[in-house]
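User: My instructor asked us to take a sequence, write out its structure as tokens, and then describe one feature of it. I'm not sure where to start. Here is the sequence I was given:
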Amino acid sequence: MKLLSFAIPCYNSAAYMEKCIDSILIGGEDIEIIIVDDGSTKDNTAEIADRYAAQYPNIVKAIHQENGGHGEAVNTGLRNATGLYFKVVDSDDWVDPDAYKAMLSTIRSFVEKDELIDMFLANYVYEKEGAKHKKVMRQTGFPVNRVFTWSDVRRFHKGHYILMHSVIYRTQMLRDCKLELPKHTFYVDNIYVYKPLPYVKSIYYMDVDFYRYFIGRDDQSVNEAVMISRIDQQLRVNKIMIEDVDLTKVRNLKCRKYMFNYLEIITIVSTIMLIKSGTEENLQKKKDLWEYIKNYDIRLYRKLRKGIMGTTMNLPGKGGRKISVAAYRISQKVVGFN
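Assistant: Let's start with the prediction itself. The structure tokens for your sequence are:
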């Protein structure tokens, strides 16, 4: 059995996918790389995937499928994974070699002791195009270099939430929680991280800069103009997160608090993108989103609405919306997210 399976969703990724794959190959035969060609048509993504699979038959699998979007590519990777652990790496990102070796060594040591940790965490770095300073996102407040549980975390910082870039999950745990991401939907990374959290009983955080998250392409899904154009998909993910997990049934109170903070951030992002678009249609969608939350779970609505960000995002009138956008900009700088 492989130690760690990497899924690399690829859609017309020929210009950059080789850098990603090469950075992961140094793990050798302890790992497997599942390249999922998600219906690429505009370049030679499929040929590159097949070439790597032929050159490294004991490490690389190439899977070709009809286009199903990033979520379905992750689903395919998970269905075909044979490793004890599972990691998603986007095809325009890469991993740091020294941090990668340290992570693998740590995972191997636990496997050899027959102590299977549910979630490994590390840092990710914003490789932002043109930025001299590369922002490192750490798991602030989490114990370092030891096994811990949710109950061991003293406090959660408001802007802290785990991204897909940070996390390596135990493969069987992902299957046990019946993780299935929706097709043809962007921003499913949030569902991927969020839904398994109540199943996580043991955590290990290494303060190493493992994942390099490239920011700079105009067509990236996290580009604000792109997010606004795809706002219905962001709203779909937001609602799935609300519906998939009843927070009142999450037994560990620290885990529940963390998940609420996560859901709050996603809801604020949905709200601010609707405000920033400035169209009457999207301002109505903002009202509809909060009305949906109110009707679906009144307790959740009250908790979201009474928070400082929930209050700020719902200030009335054009002046209120300007304050909302300004508050969001400040929080971006303080928290450091894109």
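For the description part of your assignment, you could build on this observation: The beta strands are 4-10, 31-38, 60-65, 85-88, 94-95, 119-128, 136-137, 147-148, 167-170, 203-215. Try explaining in your own words what that tells you about the chain.
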